[in-house]
Amino acid sequence: MSVFLIGAVVGDLPQVLFDLKHNFYHLKTLWQYTLDTFRGVSDAGFTYYHFLHFWPLVILAISYLVYIVIQKNKHLGILLIVIYIIVNLNSSLINFNKPVGMSEGLNLTKLIKTSKIIAEKSSNNFNIVTLYDFDTRGYTLRYLTKYIFNKTPMGILDYPSSPEIFSLAENNYNFKGSVPWELTFLKPYNIEVIEKIGDDFSLYKITKK
Fold first, then answer.
1. Which of 41, 151, 152, 167 could pair with 204 in a Cys bridge, judged by C-beta atoms 3.0 to 4.6 Å apart?
2. What is the largest CA-CA distance in the chain?
3. What average pLDDT score do residues 100-122 get?
């Protein structure tokens, strides 16, 4: 436990020092965020990944409890471990048939295929946008395009100067409606369908008219 706490402090040392110097700015902001969420006075909210950094502590606590039980009753300890495994395998976060946390209709194979097409079809100056989740800057495709196919896209702050943007989006995506910041600089733009990615998605090439 002490090792975990020391590691957390050392890892966040710049933020800890900043808070000590600036009247606990981050701590007060987090506290206000929490209050606003529970009071329902804002659109703020919590999701499970906000608490994932506490998971190692939970695992350590559970492991210690199981260790104590095993010392007193080995069979009961093994039973608890089996129950833990069964509960985890039945979790909605685990699925052996399809990707978890990825948009329906996409998987790693299709993302790799998309990145390969981008690397082959793009010029030396291009950027990437994804329009199926909150990651509009397409970090997944950026990584695959750069490190698997050796084609580096322009930076995430270079959208205003990007002559062409490759976008992975659903087939029926409305480019004439509200679009993210990353695409506004090319308006009015030409949209070309490069290739269908599965049944529900397409790779588009967007250039300025």
1. 167
2. 75
3. 91
